[in-house]
Amino acid sequence: MTLPLNPAFAATEPPPVMEARRWLQGVSFPADRPLINVSQAAPVDSPPLGLRQALADAALNDPQAHLYGPVLGLPALREEIAKQWSASYGGVISPLQVAITQGCNQAFCTVMATLAGQGDEVILPTPWYFNHKMWLDMSSVTAVPLDTGPTLIPSADAAAALITDRTRAIVLVSPNNPGGVEYPAETLTAFRDLARAHGLALIVDETYRDFDSRTGRPHELFTDPDWADTFIHLYSFSKAYRLTGHRVGAVVASEARLTEVEKFLDTVAICPSQLGQIAALWGMRNLAQWVAGERDEILARRRAMTEGFSALQGWRLLGCGAYFAYVEHPFADPSDAVCKRLVAEASLLMLPGTMFQPPGSAVGKRQIRIAFANVDASGIAEMFRRLARVRA
Fold first, then answer.
1. Looking at the 3D structure of the chain, how many domains does it have?
2. Residue 204 counted as domain residue
3. Residue ranges of the alpha helices (H) in 62-129?
């Protein structure tokens, strides 16, 4: 007997990173050509020693670290986010406008669950972050693709033509995953104005904010005294402090929205990880200089990627920033076939653009995402040597 399956889940594509890992099954890599995995953006190194010591101390000596905590997160962490974000973005954020989640993916799912239901629509620029699309599919919410063209920068004017009476939100990711591009401040302002004019939510996922190549604040959205009537900010501590396994993210939104968020979080998690929150708070208070060094290293790898593609015949770099390069390949085969071929012929694991575009997308078949944050300068140079040897 086959048990029932929610049709929305049956219609949702499997997780792309897990699918790509299955391409490695049964493959042996030569000793002189080990696998270079540029498929996933999660840090693989441990957090710095001081943070690990703070985690260990809390685990050993803080009894509260092992109990349920507040649904919306530890007050001290919410206060620290409000203080630091207010200073860095030039706005006014209250601790009551901050909620902590089990990672930024949960932050997105939480917020979206309060905004849209079956039959509603949400505008997602393409190429899109696949987990955003997956949640909408599983929720029976229609993802409306917004083509970003050759610049990978979305246009508010183009988005305006996609708005219907079923539209509930517009989602932006900057610096972008998968495109790597950093959205100009004026682009975000234009989308804020568009969303406000239509009574929509503007959700901005800033998971990779700490690795933005620009100095100063990346946008002016929080400087608007009425920001909370339209804007919802998402963030992840996983990348800045290497806390991927501890799952700590954040939502910054109106108090009224967080009242609804609390219902969702109490149902699916009860509270965020206490130890993860303790680690995030310690990091915010102690690791600013260390994060700046991490940013410098990522920017150096970004330069290496840009220079490498400028010299690689046939390939075209579409966007590069934060952890990602998004490129156009020169082969006749579609990108999913090309990426499987690169595993066998070059010991390279990348994700095809077909995982970031609507089904059947012609441009997706030409595109590939390369997550370079876990590959040092010598690894990047070796990747380019291998790509140069692959023939059409």
1. 2
2. yes
3. 75-89, 104-115
In-domain check, residue 169: yes
Task: Please check whether residue 133 lies inside any domain of the structure.
Answer: yes
Cis before 127? omega within 30: yes
Q: What is the Cα–Cα distance from 42 to 18, expressed in whole angstroms?
A: 13
Give the model confidence (pLDDT) of 298-340 as tens digits.
Answer: 999 999 999 999 999 999 999 999 999 999 999 999 999 999 9
Written as one letter, the residue type at 254 is: S
Q: What is the CATH number of the domain that holds 378?
A: 3.90.1150.10
User: Looking at beta carbons, which pairs linking 375-378 to residues 24 or more positions away fall under 8 Å?
Assistant: 375/36, 375/38, 375/301, 376/301, 377/300, 377/301, 377/304
Strand ranges (E), 193-244: 201-205, 231-236
Q: Which residue has the tokens 């929720």?
A: 139
Range of the domain at 97: 49-287
pTM: 0.95
Tens-digit pLDDT profile for residues 206-255: 999 999 999 999 999 999 999 999 999 999 999 999 999 999 999 999 99
Q: Angle CA(231)–CA(292)–CA(205) in degrees, nearest 5?
A: 20
- What is the token pair recorded at 254? 């109106």
Residue 248 CA to residue 273 CA, distance in Å, equals 7
Pair (204, 79) in one structural domain: yes
Rounded Cα–Cα distance for residues 371 and 41 (Å): 5
Locate 377 and state its tokens: 């300068």
Q: Which of 250, 270, 287 is the last residue of a domain?
A: 287
Q: Which residues contact 251 (CB under 8 A, 6 or more apart)?
A: 98, 99, 101, 107, 110, 111, 232, 233, 234, 258, 261
| Residue partners of 94: CB distance under 8 A and separation at least 6 | 82, 255
Q: Whole-angstrom Cα distance, residue 267 to residue 296?
A: 40
Residue 341: count other Cβ atoms within 10 Å of its Cβ.
14
SS3 call for 345: helix
